[in-house]
Structure to design on (220 residues):
C-alpha cells in the first residue's frame, strides 16, 4: 500500500479498462494520466476503478508520467509502478518488481525484455539496443533494456531530481539521473508481449528527440 500504479495514456480506450482491472489485483491505487485523449480513455479507466488526471492536450509521455508521479507523491506514496496502457505489460509481473525492491534495496527497478527480444519489432529492438549501449557506457554499468516503460521507482528519490524531458526520452533521462545520483538501479526479466494494438512511438521523430536530449545532456 506504499505503492501506486501510474499509467500514462493517450487514446487507449480499447485496452485501458482491462489493464487497470489487472493492475488493481496487485495494487489498490491506480492513477491514469489521460494525456489529451480524444476517445473514451478517461471514462474506461474510471469505470475500472482508476483515479484520473486529465491533461487538456497531448503533452507527451514524459510530462504525463511527471504529473502522475507528482500526484502519487503528494498523496504520500513511497513508490510508483509505471506501465503502459496498451496491454503490452503483464500485471502479474508487478510482484517481481516489488520483490526485487525488497531484496536489493534498489530505488529503481526496470523491466528487461532482452531475453526474448525477437518479440519486439526489429526497428525498435535495434534502436533500443543502440541507445542502451550509449547509456550503459555513460552510466558505467549495464542498462540492458533502457527503453522499457515497465518500472518501479522510489518517489522521494525522484522528487530530489530535476528532469526536463516531456516525451519518450524521459526513460533514458531518469535512468541516468538515478545512476548519477548514486541510486541503485536493477533490471528484472518480464514477459514479452511486443506492442499493443497501436504504438505511439515514432521511431524517427522520437529518435531525433532522443539525440537532441543526448547532446544537451552530454554538454551538461
Amino acid at each position: 500500500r506504499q505503492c501506486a500504479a501510474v499509467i500514462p495514456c493517450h487514446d487507449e480506450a480499447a485496452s485501458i479498462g482491462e489493464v487497470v482491472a489487472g493492475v488493481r489485483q496487485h495494487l489498490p491505487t491506480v492513477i491514469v494520466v489521460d494525456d489529451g485523449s480524444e476517445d473514451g480513455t478517461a471514462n474506461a479507466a474510471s469505470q475500472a476503478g482508476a483515479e484520473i488526471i486529465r491533461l487538456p492536450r497531448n503533452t507527451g509521455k514524459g510530462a504525463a508520467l511527471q504529473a502522475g508521479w507528482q500526484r502519487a507523491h503528494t498523496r504520500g506514496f513511497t513508490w510508483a509502478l509505471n506501465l503502459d496502457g496498451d496491454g503490452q505489460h503483464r500485471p502479474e509481473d508487478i510482484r517481481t518488481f516489488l520483490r526485487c525492491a525488497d531484496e536489493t534495496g534498489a530505488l529503481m527497478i526496470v523491466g528487461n525484455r532482452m531475453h526474448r527480444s525477437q518479440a519486439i519489432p526489429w526497428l525498435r529492438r535495434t534502436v533500443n539496443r543502440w541507445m542502451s549501449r550509449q547509456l550503459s557506457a555513460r552510466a558505467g554499468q549495464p542498462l540492458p533494456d533502457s527503453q522499457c516503460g515497465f518500472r518501479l521507482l522510489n518517489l522521494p528519490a525522484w522528487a530530489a531530481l530535476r528532469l526536463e524531458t516531456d516525451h519518450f526520452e524521459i526513460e533514458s533521462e531518469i535512468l541516468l539521473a538515478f545512476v548519477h545520483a548514486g541510486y541503485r538501479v536493477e533490471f528484472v526479466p518480464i514477459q514479452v508481449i511486443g506492442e499493443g494494438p497501436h504504438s505511439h512511438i515514432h521511431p524517427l521523430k522520437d529518435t531525433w528527440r532522443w539525440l537532441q536530449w543526448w547532446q544537451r545532456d552530454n554538454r551538461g
Remarks:
- The two ends are 38 Å apart (CA to CA).
- Strands lie at 3-9, 30-35, 51-55, 79-82, 108-112, 151-154, 185-189.
- The first helix runs from residue 16 to 23.
